[in-house]
Write a structure and sequence with these properties.
The complex is a heterodimer of chains A (397) and B (181). With 397 residues, chain A is mostly helical. Helix content of chain A is 36%, strand content 3%. In chain A, the strands form 3 sheets. A two-stranded antiparallel ribbon of chain A has the order 1-2. Chain A has a two-stranded antiparallel ribbon with strand order 3-4. By secondary structure, chain B is an alpha+beta fold. The chains are: A mainly alpha (397), B alpha+beta (181). At the A-B interface, helix 1 of A face helix 1 and strand 9 of B.
């Protein structure tokens, strides 16, 4: 009994100590978990690029809190919209309200960092800029518009955007650290910082990897197949398909080629009747393209749209500014329709002759020469080599 | 005395567990770096770590939202027939990937649910014959166990989960009611 009396308190003390240790362990684990979560989030926002990345995926920047930039520019599909949207067949994107539909195809953001600022050249040609009509001059100019666009993220005004930023403690800390203590104090300052951070993210190497088979072939790391090489030669040759007249800004072999001259052309693309029916467009609606850009509001620019990059083109359909063509081959044949290429006389997706252009003025004479069906196949094979390594597993589709 | 010592032994045997909870588990969690998710996936990680899972073949059904992870057997993507047309463009699904679907016969409690998966496969949720728009998405590229978590507002009744484009033939995933904020 004595022993028991003497030893029980020790045992009890030990048990209590261990129990306390369990409790402390649980509390410590929980606290550590919270601290880890918070510090990880804070850690993730320590640079402008990381802050921009967080903003890019933040649905709170849309009025409904249901849409972010990723919704229409998914990194899993070369920063294009992966959604089919039923009858729309991916031609345009759906807004944050879950109902509104756009009128133009969401372009890839990969290589967008290489786009020069919008300007009218000395030869009165429009060059560069963001969106299909260049209405945003630079990346920083561009990033705000989708947030405010009523059929996209639909925030009512800039002040509302800043209110959403202020809701987030991590943002408050990150903006203060990166842009000054008063970064979110005023709407203009906050919007400037938001634009800068988003543009910084879009300017990271992730958006210009240059890892395609074509790039690797230039670096001597691999070789194009015979068909791919023939397609490349057709693409770049002056007496070939002529693609390089618009879809290149340097001679063949340039390592930083992004396969656009950043110019604007009216190719005579037909209107997308399905989109127009479903997005509540007025029957008389005409997309005048570049002419809708206030900096280019001139009849000479009517119906022109920016030449898109062809990098990752094989996985970023549907094609053209309004996503009217589902298949890349259709888009290629459309460019050849005024040549003698037999297979280009009809739209393979409808089996009928090509619909008339939405804007009949200013249609570019592409000067395409006739191509055989094996030439077209070679061109398509070459275009597939422009797919960055990250997306090559999607090519077999 | 014996009982006390016995309890003490038990306690001492469990001590490493407690210490592991405080240090080792955190170390493992840190190694996983799953904290980049916008919401906690701690419960999902626990379900994923547990050996038990509800196994279901593609096209199969489970009665209700399980308290365990779900082991979904997938099929080659080109041959898969989803109950509802996929909401994802076909070019986003790798040809050599695997896809599958299963039905949950009854969502007993309407609310916000999250589906968390170990890779970047696409998730479609179908209820009342319509694709349910996701409410929120989060991911963690550094987390080895879980990469993607998507939240959906679900009503009561049956729901179909369609998974597309996985690199693996079988996927362990979690479906559970989202934590209250």
């Amino acid at each position: 009994m004595m022993v028991r009396v003497e030893r029980l308190p020790i045992a009890r003390w030990l048990r209590r100590s261990i129990a306390c240790l369990y409790s402390c362990a649980a509390v410590t684990a929980a606290a550590a978990s919270c601290i880890t979560l918070q510090s990880a989030q804070a850690e993730n926002l320590k640079t402008r690029e990381k802050l921009g990345e967080a903003l890019f995926s933040d649905r709170n920047l849309s009025f409904s809190r249901k849409q972010n930039c990723v919704s229409c520019h998914s990194p899993e599909l070369a920063f294009t919209d992966p959604r089919v949207l039923g009858e729309i067949q991916g031609a345009v994107s759906r807004g944050g309200d879950g109902r509104s539909l756009g009128d133009r195809n969401s372009p890839t953001l990969v290589y967008i960092r290489t786009t020069p600022a919008f300007h009218i050249s000395s030869t009165r040609e429009a060059v560069g800029g963001m969106f299909w009509d260049g209405r945003a001059g630079t990346l920083e100019d561009q990033v705000r518009d989708p947030i405010l666009n009523p059929v996209e993220m639909a925030m009512p005004d800039e002040a509302s955007i800043v209110d959403r930023l202020r809701e987030n403690a991590d943002y408050r800390a990150a903006f203060a650290a990166l842009y000054g203590e008063d970064a979110l104090a005023s709407t203009p300052k906050a919007i400037a910082a938001l634009k800068n951070a988003l543009a910084a993210f879009l300017d990271t190497p992730e958006f210009a990897p240059f890892t395609s088979k074509y790039d690797r072939s230039l670096r001597g790391e691999t070789s194009l197949s015979e068909t791919e090489a023939r397609g490349r030669d057709l693409f770049f040759s002056n007496d070939g398909a002529g693609c390089n007249r618009c879809h290149a800004s340097a001679a063949a072999g340039a390592r930083d080629e992004v396969f656009t001259n950043f110019g604007y052309f009216n190719l005579g693309v037909p209107r997308n009747a399905v989109t127009r029916r479903l997005n509540d467009s007025k029957p008389q609606r005409v997309d005048h393209g570049l002419m809708e850009n206030p900096a280019a509001a001139h009849g000479a620019f009517d119906g022109k749209f920016k030449v898109p990059t062809l990098r990752n083109v094989a996985i970023t359909g549907p094609y053209m500014h309004n996503g009217i063509f589902q298949d890349l081959k259709t888009a290629v044949l459309f460019h050849l329709r005024s040549s003698d290429t037999t297979s280009a006389k009809t739209n393979p997706e409808t089996g009928s002759v090509w619909d008339k252009p939405e804007v009949p003025a200013n249609i570019a004479d592409l000067g395409s020469r006739s191509l055989s069906s094996s030439d077209v196949d070679a061109l398509l094979a070459f275009l597939k080599t422009l797919t960055d390594r990250k997306y090559e597993n999607l090519l077999s589709n | 005395m014996k009982r006390s010592i016995s309890r003490l032994h038990v306690s001492l045997r469990l001590l490493p567990v407690a210490v592991f909870a405080a240090t080792g588990f955190q170390g493992a969690a840190s190694a996983e770096t799953c904290t980049a998710f916008k919401w906690s996936v701690a419960a999902d990680l626990t379900l994923m770590a547990a050996p038990e899972a509800v196994t279901v073949a593609s096209g199969g059904a489970i009665a209700s939202v399980p308290s365990k992870a779900i082991q979904l057997q997938l099929e080659p993507s080109p041959g898969i027939k989803f109950p509802a047309a996929s909401g994802i463009k076909k070019q986003a699904i790798p040809q050599n990937s695997f896809s599958g679907w299963f039905k949950i016969d009854a969502i007993a409690k309407p609310g916000l649910y999250q589906i968390t998966i170990p890779d970047h496969s696409w998730i479609d949720v179908v209820q009342n014959d319509e694709l349910v728009q996701s409410t929120a998405f989060s991911g963690d590229q550094e987390c080895k166990t879980l990469r993607k978590s998507v939240q959906f507002e679900l009503g009561s009744g049956p729901v179909i989960v369609q998974i597309g484009g996985s690199a693996e033939k079988s996927m362990k995933l979690t479906v559970r009611e989202a934590d209250k904020k």
